[in-house]
Amino acid sequence: MESPPSSKSTGILQVIGGLYILFGSFALVSMVQNCRFSFAPLDGQTGLMADMLRSNPTYASIMRALFFPGLLYAVVQFASGVGLLRLSALARKIAIGCALYGFVAALFTAWLTVTYTLPFTLAHTMQQVKNPDMIVTTRNVTLASGYIGITLGLLYPLVAFILLKRTPIPRPDFTQS
């Protein structure tokens, strides 16, 4: 009779697998919804993202270049999440690769956020403020949300990498009868 796999390692792998499925599917949906920014002319489009892409051709080029790697990452992350739920050793290796790529991508995204996104968003938000008493609060909330996003973006793949490296795929024990 085989003994069941360790419930602790199985639980960790299932949580990470579930998060990979959740974040991978969210990224896929977001990429599909936002593909118009990468492939359609920006002239007729409205909204903050379209304004930001129109105002900075360098940022627009970077975002277009990142579309297909981001789409591939979302698919691989989703698939490795499904594999982790099935306790696949190959899926664990792929998920570790996803975590490494996610950390590097988060570093690059942090640079993009500080260099392009936050200054544009801050300027746009400050134009919307009508009450002078709210200027400092609005500025602080905008900056805090940007920096919290950067921190979480870096923390999640780092924690996933550490947990995946420390948690082997449990193997059934065939020695007990």
Q: SSE layout and pairings?
A:
Layout (H helix, E strand, L loop, with lengths): L6 H33 L8 H8 L1 H9 L1 H19 L3 H40 L6 H32 L11
Helix pairs in contact: 1-4, 2-3, 4-5, 5-6
List keywords for this structure.
6 helices, mainly alpha, single chain, 177 residues
Tally of contiguous helical segments: 6
Helix content: over 70%
Content-based structural category: mainly alpha
Strand content: under 5%
The largest pleated sheet is described as: none
Low-confidence stretches: none
Distance between the termini: 5 Å
Radius of gyration: 21 Å
DSSP strand count: 0
What's the shape? elongated
Structure report:
- With 177 residues, the chain is an all-alpha fold.
- The chain has a domain of 109 residues.
- It has 6 helices and no strands.
- Helix 4 crosses helix 5.
- It is elongated and about 70 Å long.
- The mean pLDDT is 85.
Briefly characterize the structure.
With 177 residues, the chain is mainly alpha-helical.
